[in-house]
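Researcher: Go.
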Amino acid sequence: MMTKRHLYFNLAIIVIPWASLLFLGRRNVKRYALASACIGLFEITNHLFGHMRKWWKFYDKKVSFLRDELPFSVGPYMPLSMWILKYSYGNFKKFVLMNIIADGLFAFLFIDVLKKLRIVSLNRLSHIQFFIYLHYKAYLLYGMQGLYEKLRKRGGVPV
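Model: Structure:
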């Protein structure tokens, strides 16, 4: 049974990031959507793996991937990827720094807030391991966007 707190949290982490894309601009959404969607799908497979390995623990009983992990992949991950790409693509150092800040805040600060709210806590991962779990995908995102840009310049991919 999902608590109201968990339901409201899930709704917030899905609706707020996607609503923020209204301010990103249609052209930027189109430009960064493919790489963000690919990395979002990759993140879902990572969540499935972490779910099987019990790397984190959700407090609501009757564990459900759809209710617990999926909102984190569908909600903030893809829109945040688009925002970070918008403000840093083309400047790799800035991209890495922005990802370190975002992933660090989540791994070292926000996860503890979620634990206090009794939504989720780390189970078989330390904060450092969780940070690495979050952060390594940033390089894949940057590479995918670079590949997309290269194909787009050659005329192989429409804007």
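Model: Strands lie at 56-58, 120-122.
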